[in-house]
Amino acid sequence: MSTSRDAILTRLRDNRPDPKAHPLPPVARLGDMDNGQARFENSLQLLGGQVLERQEGDTLATAIARRFPDSKIICSAVPDFDGTIRIEELGTPQQAASVDVLVVRSPFGIAEMGSIYLSEAQLKDLNSAAHLTQHIVVILSAKNLTANMHTAYMDRPEFHTANYGVLMSGPSATADIQGVLVRGAQGVRTLSVWWED
Amino acid sequence: MKVKPVNHAKAAEAFIEDTAHMDFHDERLWDLRQKRDGQMHILPEWQELRARASAIKEHTLANLPEYLEQFEANAKKNGIHVHWAADGAEHNRIVGEILEKHGAKSLIKSKSMVTEECCMREYLEPRGVVVTETDLGERIQQLDNQMPSHIVVPAVHKLIPDVAKIFAEHYHTDPNDNSAQSLAWQQRLAARPVILSADAGMTGGNFVVAETGSFVVCTNEGNADLSATVPGLHIATIGIERLVPRMADMGVFIRMLSRSALGSPITQYTTHFRGPQKGSEMHVVLVDNGRSHRLGMEEFWTSLKCIRCGACMNTCPVYRRSGGLSYGAVYSGPIGAIIDPTFNERKYSTLPFASTMNGSCTNVCPVKINIHDQLYKWRRVLAEHHELPFVKREVMYMAGKLMGQPSLYRAAINGTEVALSTMPRFVLYNWLNPWGKHRELPHPVKQTFHGWYKQNRLKTKKKEGEGA
C-alpha cells in the first residue's frame, strides 16, 4: 500500500463535508426523447459530419469511390465490404497511418449530438486506426439511434464493457488559431455516415 | 525568502496597451459566451441539469474517499495500474519511473491542466524525456515557452501572425502564412511523425467513473485519442476531484461541458477508457496536490466541483481584458482566482481582486459554484491574513468605517461631489487611486440619490400618510 494513498484518503475523511447533507440524486432521463434520423442528421451536420450520398443503384463501394476519388487505400473493418485491405491485416498503428478511408460499423448513434460510437470490438483491437485514417465512413442503422446522452449512458451496455469506447461527433476540429474553425485537425479530416437501411 | 504576490494589474496593463490583441481576445471570448447562451436556450432543462450536476458533484466530494476506493478497485480489475500522488513532485516521480521502466524517451501528450500544475515537463525534460504537447493551442504555448492562457483554448491571446512566427521558427514554415487552416495543417504534418514514433502517450481525464473504473476524456482535435492509442503505454494524470459515482451520471455532464465551454453541443471526441488496449499498458495517476486540504475549507470546498469548462473566464470582463497570462498562475480567470490562493495564499493574494463582482461567473457555471461569493470571501480571508497591499488595506479600512455609519457615508458622498468638481487632477489621479489609472472618475452629480429621495419621495410619502 502506498503511504500517499492512505494519507490522501485519511485527509479526505477528516476534511470532507457531512455526507448526510449531500445525498445522491437519482439518475434522470431528461430532455428531448426524439431518436429520429432527421434529428441525428441535423446534429451531425452541425458538428461537421455528413451523410454519404446514396444515388440510385449505389452500393457502399460506388458511393465511396465517388466521394473519395483519389483514395488509394480503403480499409474495411466490416465483413460485408471489401475495400483494398482488411483492418486485421494492418498489424500496427504505423501501418494504419497509410489508410485513406476506413469503413467501420457503429453499434449505435446519438440523435441529440450526431455522435457515433466505436470500440475495440468494431476496430478489431486497432483503436488508433479510427484516428490515423484520413477519412472515416461509418455504417449506421437508424434502428440503432438513441435519443440523447441520458438514454445513451443508461441504455447502452458498451459503456460498461468496452475497454476503449469513443463517441465521435463529426471529424476532428480545432479553433485554436485566432478562433478560426478548422475541420480536420489531427484525427479524421471527414466523417461520413452511411445509412444501411 | 518571502514569495512576491503576482502583480496582476501591472501584467494586465501591458496586455491592454496592445489594442489589437486585447480587442480580439475580448471579442473572441464574448463570442464563446454568446454561443454558450444559444445552446443553453435550446434546452428547457438547462437549469435542472445545472442543479443535478451540482448535487452529484457535492455528493461525490462528500463521499470522495469511498468513491476513490471504488474506482481504484474497479480500475485494477480492468487491468489499469492505479497510482496516488500527494503532490506535484510525487506525480512527476511516478511518471518518470513508469517511463524509465519502459525505456521511454519520447512522450506525446494531450492537454492536461494537472500536469501544468505539477510542472511535469520541467521535471522530465532534464531527465532525457522529450515531451511533445499535441493539442494545437498547447503546442503553440509550449513552443513559445508560455503557460496556457486559458484552460480550454490555451493560445487564445495570440493572433495568426504570432502563430505563423512561432511555427516558422520551429517548423520552418512560411513566417507570413496568414491562414489558420494552413497553420493547423502544418501542425498536423509536424505532429504525425512524432506521434507515430512516440514511446508513451499521456492524457488527462475530464471525468472518472467510480462504478466502472473508467475515465472519460473530452477533446476536439483527435490528438488525445492518438496519444492514448498509438503508443503501447498510456498514462492518464487526473485530479482526485474528477469523480462521478455512476456511468449514468455522465449524461448530465457531457450535455453541459462543451455547451458551456465553446457553445458546441458536444466535443468532437468523447472517449471512455476502461482498461488497456490489447497488448498495451495503462496507468492512472490520481493527484491530490492540495485538493484534500481544500475539501476542508468550509467556504471554498465547492470550488472542487469545477469541470474546467472555462465559461467563467469567457464571461468575465476582467479576464477578457487582461488575458490569462496576467494571472501568473496555471488557472486564470474567476475560477483561477478562487483556487490559486489555495496553492499559495501570498503569491496569488492579488487575484481575488481581479473582479468587478458582477456575478456573471456564478451565473454561467454549469455546476453552480458560487464563484463571486468566494471571490468576496477570499478578499476577507486575505485581509485577515494581512495579505493585502498597503493602499488597498488602508482604503478598505476607511471604506469599512464609512459604510458602517450611514450618516458618515452620506456626508462623505456629498463631499465627493465637491471634491470631484473642485480638486485638481493630481489629487484625484495618483498612486492612492489605482482605479483612476485607465479610467476617468465619474462626473460629479448635482444631487445624490439619497438627497433626491429625501427631498421628493419622502415628502410625498409623508403627504400620502397624512391623507390616509
Write the layout of secondary structure elements.
The complex is a heterodimer of chains A (197) and B (468).
Chain A: H1 3-15, H2 37-46, E1 50-51, H3 60-67, E2 74-76, E3 85-86, H4 93-96, E4 101-105, E5 109-110, E6 115-119, H5 129-132, E7 135-140, E8 145-146, H6 149-155, H7 158-161, E9 164-168, E10 173-174, E11 182-183, E12 190-195
Parallel strand pairs in A: 1-12, 2-3, 2-4, 4-7, 5-8, 7-12
Antiparallel strand pairs in A: 5-6, 6-9, 10-11
Chain B: H1 8-17, H2 19-42, H3 46-62, H4 64-77, E1 81-85, H5 88-101, E2 106-109, H6 113-117, H7 120-124, E3 130-133, H8 136-143, H9 160-171, H10 180-197, E4 200-203, E5 207-209, E6 214-219, H11 223-229, E7 233-239, E8 243-244, H12 250-261, E9 269-273, E10 281-287, H13 291-294, H14 311-315, H15 317-322, H16 333-343, H17 360-364, H18 371-384, H19 390-404, H20 406-422, H21 425-428, H22 449-455, H23 457-467
Overview in brief:
With 197 residues, chain A is α/β, with parallel strands linked by helices. Chain A has helices at residues 3-15, 37-46, 60-67, 93-96, 129-132, 149-155, 158-161; strands at residues 50-51, 74-76, 85-86, 101-105, 109-110, 115-119, 135-140, 145-146, 164-168, 173-174, 182-183, 190-195.
Question: Would you give an account of this structure?
Answer:
- Chain A: Residues 88-190 form the LUD domain.
- Chain A: This is LUD domain-containing protein.
- Chain A: InterPro entries: FTHF_cligase-like_sf (IPR024185), LUD_dom (IPR003741), NagB/RpiA_transferase-like (IPR037171).
- The complex is a heterodimer of chains A (197) and B (468).
- Chain A is an alpha/beta fold.
- Chain A has a single domain, classed as Rossmann fold, CATH 3.40.50.10420.
- Chain A has seven helices and twelve strands.
- Chain A has helices spanning 3-15, 37-46, 60-67, 93-96, 129-132, 149-155, 158-161; strands at 50-51, 74-76, 85-86, 101-105, 109-110, 115-119, 135-140, 145-146, 164-168, 173-174, 182-183, 190-195.
- Chain A has a six-stranded parallel beta sheet with strand order 1-12-7-4-2-3, covered by helices on one side. Chain A has a four-stranded mixed beta sheet with strand order 8-5-6-9.
- Chain A is globular and about 65 Å long.
- By secondary structure, chain B is α/β, with parallel strands linked by helices.
- Chain B is built from 23 helices and ten strands.
- In chain B, a hairpin with a 4-residue loop joins strand 5 (207-209) and strand 6.
- Chain B is globular.
